[in-house]
Amino acid sequence: MLAAQTTRLTSQRLFSRLGLTGSGARAMSTTVRPATEPLVIAPKALASLMEKQDGSSKLRILDATWFMPNTNPPRSPLREFTVGPRLPKAQFWDVDKVATTGESVRNLPHMMPSAATFARAASEHGIEPETHVVVYDTHGVFSAPRTAFTFKAFGHSNVSVLNGGLPAWINHGLPIEEGEPSSAAKTDYPEPVLQDGIIRSFDEMVANAKMGARGQTVFDARSKGRFDGSDSEPRPGLSSGHIPHSLSLPFPTLLKTETGKDGKTYTVLKDQIELWRTLGDTVGGTEALDKLRQASSGGELAATNTCGSGMTAAAIWLALQEIGVQSSIYDESWMGWASRESEGVPIDKNV
């Protein structure tokens, strides 16, 4: 395993070699600036920032909660946000509406928005390119990384994920809001440019799979049973299994479970040492993982992440970012890949 993984190609070099363009044809956004805020922020650190706000401060807090479609009983993230509790002055970011929809994306949910859609949503939320955006969800760490990834993909560098989300905030005894949420004054966010290669296309993933062990490392955030093909998919009509030569990395393995004072549990991201250990075990050792980090230090996107629908793949992206590995997301993920099974798309199983 180690030998195979350490010889994998990384980043855009692989896809240019394959003669593919797709998302890689786009230029790097000229609005990209070095981040001055941490990608993962603790509740007390955010509370301190909020206390220091004044009229010139640029801080926006977004609730980007999303629930699996088969949640029983069904839950509405917008309704729960509106009722509360929520963070003070938070606004709701609807990941299924701030997205590309329709036949161009095979009617898949929460696909990466166009630059125009993203800019419009950012403007409606009172966000400017210099704004520090903090994203949270009500699970702890689950859907918030996807929205953070979206901001980063469009060159918005100062974005943070609240570690532990709303449950951790409440568990620390920090102030909350309930009832009608406040609104922000609309801004004029300039239309950005999507980062080169940050979203991988189906054709790129097919070509990468054909490269076998020489292809780019691909992580799959779904459960091991779904990856192996022993468990069924939660979405009807899709076979389980995985993209050939991808690696199983269930996103919960990157998280720790905490118990709040109310007895309820929530998730937080593991620390860097624990993440290094978990990710190293997945790729076949710390030497292989260090090769990905070294490639990333040169500006390369060294791996690609996938999941069921492109949501929890961002949890892997977040974890990799924390240890210095830059990565992209196959936005269609398993829904896009497995829906083409009748067209002859290969599906590997470990059963």
From TrEMBL:
Biased composition (Basic and acidic residues): 221-234
Keywords carried by this UniProt record: Repeat, Transferase
CC annotations in GO: mitochondrion
Domain Rhodanese residue range list: 55-178, 212-346
Location of region: Disordered: 220-245
Signal peptide: none
Pfam families: Rhodanese
GO MF, any single term: thiosulfate-cyanide sulfurtransferase activity
Designated name of the protein: Rhodanese domain-containing protein
Organism, as annotated: Moesziomyces aphidis (Pseudozyma aphidis)
